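Limitations

Structures in this collection are predictions, not experimental determinations, and the ligand pose is part of the prediction. Treat each record accordingly. The example that follows, with 4-fluoro-L-phenylalanine as the small molecule, is included so readers can see exactly what is and is not provided: the inputs are given verbatim, and the output is the predicted complex.
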Amino acid sequence: MKENRGNFSSKLGVIAVAAGSAVGLGNIWRFPYIAGENGGGAFLIVYLIFVFLIGVPVMLSEFAIGRKAGCNAYGTFKKLSPKGAWWLVGLMGILAAIMIFSFYGTVAGWTLEYVKKAICDEFAGQDLGALSQSFSDFTTSPTMPLVWMVVFVALTALIILGGVEKGIEKVSKFLMPLLFVLIIAVCIRAVTLPNASKGLEFLFKPDWSSLTFKGVLMALGQAAFSLSIGMGTMITYGSYIKKDTPLTATAIEIASCDTIVALLGAIMVFPTLAFLGAESTGGPGLVFVTLPAIFQAMPGGYIFAILFFLLLSVAALTSTISLLEVPVSFLVDEFNMSRRKATLLSSSVIILLGVFCTLSFGLLSDFTIFGKTIFDLFDYTTANIMLTFGALFIVIYVGWFFGRKNFVDELTAGGRGNVVLAKIISIIVKFIAPIGIGLVAIGTFVIGGIV
Ligand code: PFF
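Predicted complex:
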């Protein structure tokens, strides 16, 4: 059973792959539009607090129990607490992974269409209105978005079939830094556009009156989504981390990378919006409309656009790989299924659900549940409810049941890492994180803003 699981060849491998999971559409597509809809600067501050005060400890909790147990999300709880009902947390994580991939695949498919559009130079000469129109023409059409979604899921499945090592490690180590360089170049152009300062002000000057309680909830959900925590990805990846690697520094590095990319994502978008004189509440189409506009204002914009959307799809791919790995490792470990069968089964379910998410923008746009399309419902429910509660249960488990000594031992790899910091983190995991996440989660129900 063990040899079926696949493995990473080096310590850097797993860091790169976990960072590859974290950095994705969540940073460049989701963060700017969620920040835009929730007030900009004030949202950003709450977001940063959540990432480092709560996100990092949750990620560490996941790594610690995953490595200790050496299993998938469900098996980890089953193994560490055979008598408890904690395995339900693992099961919820597996469900969350499937649901996230279902709507994420839609947007990942859009990135492929935008590679094609960039190659065909379709953005040339289009103003904001035309770019919005072409985005909505494409996303509402009944065929191509489906085709791209299926292509994307199939691509992910092919990579997973080849095992989790080599391929993903290489992609994460070489192409992600390249994406980073491109993003920096686009940011430089964005901040030098006329009127850019207005966009930067929106992002960096907090206007607390624009932050609602729902905004706080969205910030926590976005932090969990962006760091790939609260659902078992990092438990699964933790099971691949070598025993002698101290965990604390690893999680801080991953969270820092992730946050820098999200910030840069927003720095690309908001000055461009200010330059175009557009609203910051553009919804899911935000980057697909603003980025083509900025490429037009850049020297070499044609090449930039192609490379950018190509690397964005690669960033999405390293995230979807980690999503698919969650149900696949569950089926392999728990049902002794072959990797091949597990991959085929999981990706078929994802494609099936993905069809509904993808059509939410066109044929099924009038089909709503609690006033949300299926896409919105999956997006909102996973990030703000499943990941939030997943994170809550994970810190409660680690803080109160896993044992402080076990946790500190894992964080420091038996005393190799910083013990004082590990002890502080264990206190955060026991008290601060559960209270913080709990308040936000309970508050959601009290104000009735669940959906
Ligand atoms: N963190 C990814 C992103 O920001 O794009 C999305 C994601 C991947 C969420 C894997 C959860 C996950 F398990």
